[in-house]
Amino acid sequence: MNQVFCVGRKIFFKDCLRVLIMGAVACGLGFALVQVGQRYFPRWHQALVEPLQEKKISSEIRGLNLAEFLTFVKNPNVVILDARDSGFYEMGHVPGALNLARRQFEEDWKRLNLKMSGLAERKVAVYCSGADCEDSRIVAGKLLGLGVSQVMVFTEGWEMWEKSGQEVER
Q1: How far is CA 33 from CA 23, 27, 42, 49, in A?
Q2: Whole-Å CA distances, 147 to 6, 10, 53, 123
Q3: Helices marked H in the chain — which ranges?
Q4: Which helix (H) or strand (E) holds 169?
Q5: Coil, strand or helix: which one is 80?
Q6: Cα–Cα distance for residue pair 10/15, rounded to 1 Å
Q7: pLDDT at 54
Q8: What's the rounded Cα separation, in Å, for the pair 77 and 68?
Q9: What is the pTM of this model?
């Protein structure tokens, strides 16, 4: 009986040790993913949070059609923002548009903040790739959160701009 108790005790001790090691490894991996994930997996977080924010913000943002957007582009007091990634912006954009990409919003905002003085009092029109793209609405929502009150979205986006034969700046 004494031998059975000793064998059972050794097995129990080994099992406890394994559980502790697996727990420590899991905690370490979790910590590492949180630290690394903020840089390399930002879409993971955005995919969970932004759809909820989008529904709230959509009603506050006015949409523009092509004719309305053209009047904004011709007005030097209106700030035009391209919400597409910088690679697409560099391939071509609306003349005079500044790149404030959704995925690099914080970095682009810091870089552009000096160029956009008095933005809170100015009209801002944001566009992205097309009617199915949500980036312009998300950027517009972030601008509203930063105190820019006159934000509108060109809902037909870059796709319509190109189809209509408008001027392209590279």
Answers
A1: 15, 10, 12, 18
A2: 70, 65, 16, 12
A3: 2-40, 42-58, 66-74, 86-91, 105-112, 135-145, 157-163
A4: none
A5: strand
A6: 9
A7: 47
A8: 15
A9: 0.67
